[in-house]
Each structure stands twice: as structure tokens, then as C-alpha cells.
Design brief:
Blueprint: H1 2-24, E1 30-42, E2 45-59, E3 67-73, E4 79-80, E5 83-89, E6 100-107, E7 117-120, E8 122-125, E9 129-135, E10 141-143, E11 146-148, E12 150-153, E13 160-161, E14 169-175, E15 181-187, E16 196-202, H2 212-217, H3 227-233, E17 237-242, E18 252-257, E19 260-265, H4 273-285, E20 290-300, H5 302-313, E21 320-324, H6 335-340, E22 346-349, H7 363-372, E23 378-381, H8 409-413, H9 426-430, H10 468-490
Parallel strand pairs: 1-12, 1-13, 16-17, 16-20, 20-21, 21-22, 22-23
Antiparallel strand pairs: 1-2, 2-6, 3-4, 3-9, 5-6, 7-8, 10-11, 14-15, 15-17, 18-19
Helix pairs in contact: 1-10
Length: about 500
Amino acid sequence: MKNTKRFLLCFVMLFSLAIAPVYAVNSNHVLNGTYSLIVDEYDWGVATPRVIVNVDQEITTIDKDVLKVVETKENAEDFQRTIVDAYISDQNGQKVEGASKYFTIDLKVSPTEGSPFIYKSFNEWADPYYLTISLKENKEIIDGQNEYDTLNIDTNYTSRSLSAGDQFDYSGRYQATDGTNYSFATYSPAKDDHKNALVVWLNGGGEGGTNPQIAVLGNKVTGLISPEIQEKLGNAYVFVPQCPTLWMDGYGDFEFTESGLKFTPRHTPSTYVKSLMECIKAYVDSNDDIDTSRIYIGGCSNGGYMTMQMVLSYTDYFAAAFPICTGFDASDLSEKDAQKLKDFPLFITYCENDDTLDPNQFSRPLIEKLKAANATNLHVFSPDDVHDTSGLYNGEDGKPYQYSTHWSWIYVFNGEAIEDDTSLELFSWLSKQSKQVKNENVEIADKVEDSQKTTEKTAVKTGDNSPIFTYMSLLAVASCAYLLIAHKEYE
């Protein structure tokens, strides 16, 4: 019997020693995982302010001071990102209490830090673009009794979310009768009990191509669907046809000189005028919820030129226009054209010191010609510079960050384009413009393709898993103890 007792005692001791390392300290010391990338829009364009990391084991704490994030980007040196915060989260990046297999890292962004775009004649998604997420040297993640000295996160992100940009549908395609192929993005407001206005946005010169995400994200076009602007417009549709090249193709020639960009007009309309009108009309005709008495058109730079060209060519179709830093040469606005636009609602925005499209060649004389024609509904916003108004970004001098003086669209998307002589804000004014639309005789070649986008949301997985193995181990120990006591009593 004594041998049996010794055997049972040894068994209990060995079993306890065997399971102790498993629950005292994690034997692997490694957290493996993946990450998803969050992209958001800012005054200067896009940036990556956040990543959501998914690891293979639940943790209850994460410290930003032990983490390191390095950005790798096409045609750029690797750059260590500044970590603002790190916290346990769900799979959507929302903070949670308790254990989770997800944690989120908030990253600093600025006009010079964190953009996943690269400019190569047009803006493009940088390729490659990825983040290397690891632990700093000699740092560990200490989570209760678990210690991890290695964070092994795959550098290839599993998904890329666009924050506000995901509210757009980017699947639109249209082929005009002349063979021009358009890609376009659309935003549809929530269904209500009335027809809704439409805002047509024409991209700038850097946002052309065949990926309409660029046309929306290259400038802060998501500003058009912000709650503030949508409230002013009474919930409006937004239609963003992307120019395959430049809207000003056929209109003139650009030349880069030591003194800046030089433009020589050919005094002929853009090659895209008719095909663009077909594309716009096809979209409008496919949606009977659009109020055709409230179709507004606007654009910046190249798109600012095209805005003027479209309202000259199809004045009766649009209810109002808001060209920004327009590239429309004032010499091409004849007295007859000025009279044609005399009663047409126009809100023109430009910077007095625009360093790309000289206001003395474009915006100023254009406005003067319209005023000379006694324009009845002309409004102008012309700031001296373009600077940060959020209070978040400063230059080296400590003053608000100065953007390119060409980027006056920043004020428009922020709802800050206010007429020089009054307190009239652009979108408040725009919402009051309405007219009887006369349909143009434009033949539509093909039906618009604009599929409904759906978003699949996966249920959040949080909470504790029952440590069944631990309970079974304790049960085994208790059983052995019981046998010992019973055996002793028997003796």
C-alpha cells in the first residue's frame, strides 16, 4: 500500500509540474497575426491613420510604447510612423474591455506623412505600400502571466477600408457613342419622401484615369457627403465621372517652365464635352429619384475648366455651377457667351495668389467679363492663401500649415467658401438654386452600369473562452487527493 501511496504522490507532483509552464508563462513567446489598413480623407488628400491588428491569441492589454510601425512605399525610403495610441479593440477598431484577438494602432498623419498615394502624372495607389508592425528592441508584450517577445505580423494587409470613401459605389462604367469609356463613382442618399438634387463633380488634372477611387480620394470629395453639406443640400446624390486623361485635352497645351506651368489655349472646346454630357444624362435618366430641376455641376482646376465649358455648352441642363481655380481662359468667353450666362447661377472660387493657374489669365478676367454683362447671380470667394483651418497642422514657423495656393477647393469641401462681400456660403446658396430643365438632344449609346454595393459585416468576436483543460487538470489532482485520503482511512 505504501508503494501505491508513493506512486500517487509522485504522479500528482509530476502532473502539476507538467502543466505549470503552460499557464504560468506562454511557451511560444510569439504573437502571429495580420492587419487591415484604414484610409481616411484629409484636406491634402488621403492618409493611413489607423491599422487594426488581428493576432492568433487573445490578449487583454497593449502598450503603444513597445510597438514599432515602419512604412514602406513606392519610390520612397522606409519611414518610421509615429504611434499616437494603441488599445484592445474589436475587429472594427472600436475599444473594448477584456480579452480580444484584435488591437488597434492610431498613427500620426499630416500633409507630409502617411499617404498611400504616389503622384506619377496622375495620383495612384502606391505599389508597394505596406506597414511592418513589430516590437521595439528589447521590448515585450506582458499580458498577465503571458509574455511575448516577438510580434510576427504579415506585412501584406488583408483589407483596405476607406472610411467615408466606402460610402461611394465605384463600379459605374459608361461607353459614349464616340467610344470614350468612363469610370465613375456615385453616392446615393438614404431614401426619403421626395426627389433629391444631384451634384456632378469633375476631377482635377491629377485624378484622371480609370480608377474612380482616385477621383474621389485625390481631393476631399467625401466632403460633399459630409453631414453638414448634405444637410444644406437636403440630401443630394453625388456623381463623379472620371476623365480618362485631362478634361482640357483638345482645349490647349501645357508647358512646364522655370517660372511655372504655362498654358497656351487652342481656343477649341475639350474633346470630352459631348461624351461627358452623354454620361451625365445617362446616369440621370437611370435614376428617377433625381430632381432634374436641381442638377449642379462643379470641379477644380482641370475640372473647373470643364465646369465652365459644360455650362456654356448645356446652359439649360444645369441649375447652377461652382467652378474652382478654373482653367477656363477668359479670352474664350465672348460677349455673346457672357450674355448667355448673365442669369445663370455661378459661384466662382479661386486663390488670389494661385501659383498654378494664374488668376490674371483665368479667374479674374472671367469674373470681370461676367460682371460687365451685368450677371445677376454671380458670387466670388477669393482667399489670399490656402491654409489649414482645423488647428491640427502647423508649419515649421508654428503658423497654420500653408498648402499650395492652387488648392482653393479645400475651403469648398470644408464648407468654408464664403462670398467675399457677404456671409453667403457656397452650399447654402447652391441649395436654393433651381430651374426648369430643358433636355438636350444627346443620344445615349449604352445603358449605365452602376451596381448596388453591399457591405458584409461580420459579428464581433469578444469575451473569454472557458479554460476547460485547466478545470480537467484540477479535477484530476482532486481525484488523486481523494484516493490518497480514502486509502489512508482504509489502512
